[in-house]
Design a protein that fits this description.
Oligomer: single chain
Shape: elongated
Order of helices and strands: HHEEHEEEHEHEHHEHEHEEHE
Number of helices: 10
Strand order of the largest sheet: 6-11-10-9-8-7
Structural class: alpha/beta
Distance between the termini: 31 Å
Strand content: 15-25%
Mean pLDDT: 97
């Protein structure tokens, strides 16, 4: 759940921007059928099993349109919900409920989809000791929502943005002139409290990274045999992360490997939305 400061400073402006995207000047359909304020109610219903996430954002969308809107929640973020379950009742001006419906559901469906997909992979990793991480492969201006959803699903956040830590990827290494040079320059520039992570694609690069003193070595797009050889070379001298097209369908290939983390862009760029509807809207 977002605290009040984060909500007001970082979340509200994004929700308002999304509302403005959907309502340029007016909701002409709603205004055509509802000329005056009219109290009403509607039900928030889950249409498939999954992990619910984003209820606070869902409610906030309507509250920003009209502070008098009341959202009565019957579930909380992180709950396992079932098809047909009533998760909330909305009370307020029907015009507000109609205007905010699509934006609020877009957030809730997307966030719940990410939390559900993340949770499925977390369960596949149970007992391995490997932590599941997300990436920066998020949709623009939705990172705060998508990374929150990963946590609700049981995953962990990698860097939030470029300020958070040093991660030397292939193009950084190419620009610097090699793994050793990139790590050396990063150590000279970055504060000593920052860990230096480097992405490697070959066993030769693994050897360079170990010799140069990398704190975390990311094994990128390696087959299982090569990963095992890389793990043997590292031999506990650095933490190990695995990345590269990691999905729910292939995550089990990591079972038995002594790695610390696996990062998956699929958590945020490929998770299907969760089917949720606002139904039974009526006047009261």
């Amino acid at each position: 759940m977002f605290d009040e400061v984060t909500l007001k400073i970082s979340v509200d402006p994004l929700i308002l921007s999304a509302i403005k995207e959907d309502i340029t000047s007016e909701d002409v359909t709603t205004n055509a059928i509802m000329r005056q304020p009219q109290a009403g109610e509607a039900d928030l219903i889950c249409k498939q099993d999954g992990i619910i996430c984003g209820l606070q954002v869902f409610a906030r969308t309507f509250e920003l349109l009209d502070a008098n809107t009341k959202v009565e929640l019957f579930a909380k973020d992180g709950d396992e919900v079932k098809k047909g379950q009533l998760m909330a009742k909305l009370h307020g001006d029907i015009r507000v409920l109609l205007c905010g419906e699509r934006t609020a559901l877009n957030y809730l469906q997307r966030m719940s989809g990410i939390a559900t997909y993340t949770n499925q992979i977390v369960k596949l990793l149970e007992g391995t000791g490997i932590k599941l991480l997300d990436t920066r492969k998020t949709s623009p201006n939705n990172r705060i929502f998508e990374k929150y959803s990963v946590r609700i699903g049981g995953g962990n956040n990698h860097r939030y943005n470029l300020t958070d830590g040093v991660l030397l990827k292939d193009n950084h290494i190419g620009a610097a002139g090699g793994v050793t040079k990139a790590i050396t320059m990063a150590k000279e520039y970055a504060p000593f409290v920052r860990k230096i992570e480097v992405e490697v694609e070959t066993l030769e690069q693994v050897k360079e990274a170990v010799a140069a003193g990398a704190d975390i070595i990311m094994l990128d797009n390696m087959d299982r045999e090569t990963m095992q050889q890389a793990i043997d070379i590292i031999n506990g001298s650095a933490e190990i992360e695995v990345s590269g097209n990691v999905t729910k369908e292939n995550i089990e290939r990591l079972n038995g490997l002594k790695v610390d983390y696996v990062s998956s862009g699929a958590l945020t760029h490929s998770a299907p939305i969760m089917d949720i509807s606002l139904k039974n809207m009526h006047q009261v």
